[in-house]
Design a protein that fits this description.
This protein is α/β, with parallel strands linked by helices. The protein contains six helices and 13 strands.
Length: about 210
Amino acid sequence: MKNLTVIDNPLIKRDITYLRDEETKEYQFRLALKRIAYILASEVSKNFNVTEVEVKTPLEITVGHKITKDIILVPILRAGLSLVEAFIEMIPYAKVGHIGLQRDEKTFQPVEYYYKAPKNLGESTVIILDPMLATGGSASVAAEFLKGRGAREIIMANLIAAPEGVSRMEQDHPDVKIYTAQLDRALNENAYIVPGLGDAGDRTFGTL
């Protein structure tokens, strides 16, 4: 799993525990998820290139920095929306695209129903956002869509990943770096991550 970075942070470990607990209320779930997303955004940003710029302080002129490339966030609907707010707060100039993919409950394969993204994908760093990397099917399709529309630098950010999903992404898209807060054990017979935290979308938006 050479393209995978698992973030080792005590605050993440604490909040992953909140997310796993079936007794955690929706508002508590959302807050814990957002706290993790801030740390994810910070870790992902370590990939960003910077350019030196001149800046005048109240005392003198010194050297500052700006991010070289535009940043485009692409949440996979709908669960990926839960990560957008924290990433936008950390990267306020980022643009946001959307990919709508839903899982066929019989085949477990992703089915596209929506796509909209900024036009300058090729000149930007594109960050795919999805709380769960399970089979890797949706992530792989999303990366393929984005590459087909010009994206050349893609990063993926997840809360929890399964080894099967990471392997699928490394096979299909070895150039995509993956950042996750937790690597779980495996997928069960229904292709859900275990031990996992259930359906991230349903628990975020209260649609259980």
